[in-house]
Write the structure tokens for this entry.
Amino acid sequence: METVEPMETVETVEPVEKPKVVLGVSGGIAAYKACELLRRLTESGHDVRVVPTEAALHFVGEATWSALSGHPVSTEVWESVHEVPHVRIGQAADLVVVAPATADLLARAAHGLADDLLTNTLLTARCPVVLAPAMHTEMWEHPATQENVATLRRRGAVVIEPAVGRLTGVDTGKGRLPDPVEIFEVCRRVLARGARAAEQDLAGRHVVISAGGTREPLDPVRFLGNRSSGKQGYALARTAVARGARVTLVAANTTGLPDPAGADVVRAGTAVQLREAVLKAAAEADAVVMAAAVADFRPEQYAVGKIKKRDGEGPAPVPLVRNPDILVELSADRARPGQLVVGFAAETDDVLANGRAKLARKGCDLLVVNEVGERRTFGSEENEAVVLAADGAEVPVPHGPKEALADTVWDLVVSRFA
């Protein structure tokens, strides 16, 4: 009798649906940079539909957008009418990002106009909306544009502050489109927050963040420094921008890190310079997060010439003096009523015990305590910490991306604002 082999059971794997992103492109010279943003979105697993304005096609043609996105491109509501694109595109999106967003586009969006496919999409979208403005400085600073931006932010849109730099022609100033890589990072953070992204719980707040490590010069070629890369501070800045905050980032020696989109970046080198920049920015801040690794000491004297080694002689001692304790100063003398101050503590042993003692000594509202060492935390893309609060709360943050720790910090800050 012939035996029949049993058939193998084949498991069916449900296809994972890609997040749907609408990339709006308005008619500015920076439209060509949106190609890089589109590439970042598609290569990271997003299904992107490009919706340019008619003016945008004067800068980058329809064929380019179609080829890079894999979808047909239209500017009009009258094409493929049976699919009702002016409604369906916005309804189906998980995120709408417009880059560049010209002054004209911001005005039409703020006033609810719907005279092309992109503005119709913005009106029908019930997902988070990110707008990356690009225009000349005078246009950005005009009261009409500023009122339109304020209106859009009040409605929950993330309007990224433009970068400062070279504009069209010989002009330089604020109005440059932020680096597409950094716009992508904002989009990634907004998408990661999911339904919570619409809350924009830092909208209307000004936050100051310090990042990186200070360097105290010994002579023209040497300095006392530390291993801090600035990545945690930059993650805090990106996350705050994605949650609607106005961000001032005081960056100390963060070589190689691109400026986070939407953050006003102030450079500092030494602890004294960092103190000056932070105190100035903190004067109108709702929260200050001191993520920078500030040197505790600096050489008492700076040698104007390179210190030479001499045969038969050991190194001369280097007298040190204390640097100002910026965290203590911020905590003791709040620039505004209700201002929150967050500190960071890098420890190598007795992490929690040292952290609790430091929290009491510094007087801040929250202290992020993490263990550091060779190949741990400094320079890494991940972090692990415990956030200690002055009210006695302890919130552990498991090992993971630095953006996750940043979100936890802002969650705790927002809860204390309330």
Q: What stands out?
A: The radius of gyration is 25 Å. The chain has a mean pLDDT of 90. The first strand starts at residue 20 and ends at 25.
